[in-house]
Design brief:
Helix content is 58%, strand content 14%. The chain has eleven helices and seven strands. It has helices at 4-7, 36-41, 63-72, 87-97, 101-109, 165-172, 175-178, 182-217, 222-252, 261-341, 358-379, and strands spanning 45-52, 55-56, 76-83, 115-119, 122-133, 138-148, 152-159. The protein has a seven-stranded mixed beta sheet, sandwiched between helices. A hairpin with a 4-residue loop joins strand 5 and strand 6. It is rod-shaped and about 145 Å long. The relative contact order is 0.07.
Length: 383
């Protein structure tokens, strides 16, 4: 393990008397590539430090060095931040800190549901962070895993989880809070994740407002957007709802594990914010269900109106067809009679051809036939 520093730890140079800012944790770009600085160094450990009385001492050189320093210097706490570590690196840390193999497996594989588990005196917490992408108008998710022991904290980030260097900077700026140990770091990370939900809530609310406008504006493509947004809200709900159970579990262990009163207040505050977020997300899901129902109703009404217009047009066409057919029948009768008498048969076969009144008789027959058909069609409202 002598080459652990070169393989794992990001070099952090510090003057003995100066307190420099910690090496910032970098987030992934949307395509999942490591930031340029991290790619050049190849570091999976983004920052590692030892603290005493809430103040940063220095950076350890190896996992064994961390454990040796913690044994030799009571009251010292180690905080190591990693980004997507492989199994070998995490197993090396797990051997030094006594991490359970199941927790290590979960932290390497990722894609875990938010949960809280206790392995002896070590807490293992999985959180799902969220970020709203304004350009794509969609929610991106990442995971943060924490191992919290009596004198150490390991934070493991996966995917689009937000960088934790703001949390480290906040804690280092407040030694009194950091001096409360690993549970204080756990609180700070929880608070950071829950605060990160606020822009997501605002983005989803804006999307829902836009969808309402599209629905009542008759946009034909709104149904697809409602479906896609509903999936995002459901995924967000899966990230936020289990967080309440995690906080309830921490609250239930206050007395058993002797959590300080001040930390209890902080964690209750995070629980209040998380409850508000969960309620908003539940409301979003119900709103989208209602919007989908309204959209289906409006689409049905539009289809009914279209069918009504088509029916009216068809009825109007039928009326015209009846009129045309009636006049065609009326005109066909004299044509038929005239055709019969225009066949030039011999007189014995058609005696009326030599009848003095044969011609007026034929004309009268034509007129009578046309009048009869006209009256019949008129009575039936065909004309």
């Amino acid at each position: 393990m002598s080459d652990w520093r070169s393989r794992v730890l990001r070099p952090v140079r510090r003057a003995a008397t100066a307190q420099a800012e910690p090496a910032p944790e970098q987030s992934m770009d949307p395509r999942g590539r490591r930031p340029s600085g991290e790619r050049e160094l190849g570091a999976q450990v983004l920052d590692a430090a030892l603290y005493r009385d809430g103040r940063r001492l220095d950076s350890p050189s190896s996992p064994a060095d961390v454990r040796a320093r913690l044994r030799k210097e009571p009251g010292t706490m180690a905080w190591i931040g990693l980004y997507q570590p492989d199994e070998a690196h995490l197993a090396e840390l797990g051997e030094e800190f006594g991490l359970h193999e199941l927790a290590i497996e979960d932290a390497v594989v990722a894609h875990q549901r938010p949960k809280l588990e206790r392995y002896g005196d070590t807490l293992f917490v999985v959180l799902r962070a969220a970020r709203y992408d304004d350009a794509a108008e969609e929610v991106e998710f990442g995971e943060i895993h924490l191992f919290c022991g009596p004198d150490f904290v390991l934070t493991v980030r996966h995917g689009n989880a937000p960088p934790l260097h703001p949390v480290r900077a906040r804690m280092e700026a407040d030694p009194g809070l950091l001096a409360r140990g690993s549970e204080a770091v756990l609180y700070a990370v929880l608070d950071h994740v829950v605060d990160g939900y606020a822009p997501v809530i605002a983005g989803l609310q804006n999307d829902i407002d836009e969808i309402e406008t599209q629905v009542f504006g008759g946009d034909p493509g709104v149904s697809r957007r409602i479906y896609e947004l509903s999936r995002e809200v459901i995924e967000f709900q899966r990230a936020t709802r289990p967080l309440l159970a995690i906080l309830d579990g921490l609250t239930a262990g206050f007395d058993k594990y002797g959590t300080e009163e001040e930390l209890q207040r902080y964690l209750r505050d995070v629980a209040d914010h998380a409850t508000t977020v969960a309620e908003r997300v539940d409301g979003f899901r119900q709103m989208l269900a209602d919007i989908l129902t309204v959209n289906a109703t409006l689409v049905t009404q539009a289809q009914n109106e279209e069918i009504k217009h088509m029916t009216e047009a068809s009825l109007a066409q039928n009326e015209e067809i009846k009129k045309i057919s009636s006049w065609a029948a009326i005109l066909f009768a004299p044509t038929l009679i005239g055709t019969v008498y225009g066949m030039n048969f011999e007189a014995p076969g058609m005696p009326e051809l030599r009848w003095t009144y044969g011609y007026p008789f034929a004309l009268g027959l034509m007129a009578l036939t046309c009048l009869s058909l006209y009256l019949i069609f008129k009575r039936r409202d065909w004309l």
